[in-house]
Amino acid sequence: MSTHSLSDSLDGYDRRILDELQRDGRVSNQELADRIGLSPSPCLRRVRALEDAGFIQGYRAMVDARRMGYGLMVILHIAMDEHTDERFANFEAAITALPNVLECLIITGQSADFQLKLLVRDMDEYEALLLRTINRIDGVTASHTSFVLRKVLDRQIVPTAAAAQ
C-alpha cells in the first residue's frame, strides 16, 4: 500500500499559505505574501494553484449560532433498517435538504449508521424536526439523541505540518 498522497507535493510555502488562509480567509494577498515570505505575484499563483488542485475548497464566514437564535446543538445517531446503496442515498438526500443539519457522517462502531449534528432554536423545534421529518425518512428504525452542553473545542483547521512528516 502506497503512503504517497497529494499533500506530498506541497512545499513549505504551500503549507504556510494553507495555515494562514485557514486562520484568516480574508487576508489580502499582499499581507499573505508578507507573512509567508514571498512576493505577491508568486503567492497569488500558489493560492490559485491550491484552489485549482482542490486543497482549498472555498471560503466562508463563521456565524455565531446563538446570535442567530439557535440555542440547542444536537448530536443524533440514526440506525437504518437496510444497508443498501439505495437506502443510504435516499436518507442522505433527505438529510441534505434540511438546513438544520450541519453535518452528516456515516459511522461504524456504534449501533447507528449515521451521526448528525443539528442546530435548532429550542426543544420544540427539535421535537418537530425529529418526529415529523427525520424519523419519517424511509429506512430509519431508531434514533438516539445527545444534547451538547458546551463546546470545548470547535477546530475547523486541518493540520498541514503533520502531513509533511
From TrEMBL:
InterPro entries given in the database record: ArsR-like_HTH, AsnC-type_HTH_dom, Dimeric_a/b-barrel, Tscrpt_reg_AsnC-like, Tscrpt_reg_AsnC/Lrp_C, Tscrpt_reg_HTH_AsnC-type_CS, WH-like_DNA-bd_sf, WH_DNA-bd_sf
Boundaries of every HTH asnC-type domain copy: 10-71
GO BP annotations, alphabetical order: regulation of DNA-templated transcription; response to amino acid
GO molecular function: sequence-specific DNA binding
A Pfam family assignment: HTH_24
Keyword Transcription regulation: yes
Record keyword DNA-binding present: yes
CDD domains associated with the record: HTH_ARSR
SMART domains: HTH_ASNC
Transmembrane intervals: none
Keywords from the UniProt entry: DNA-binding, Transcription, Transcription regulation
Name of this protein: Lrp/AsnC family transcriptional regulator
Organism: Larsenimonas rhizosphaerae
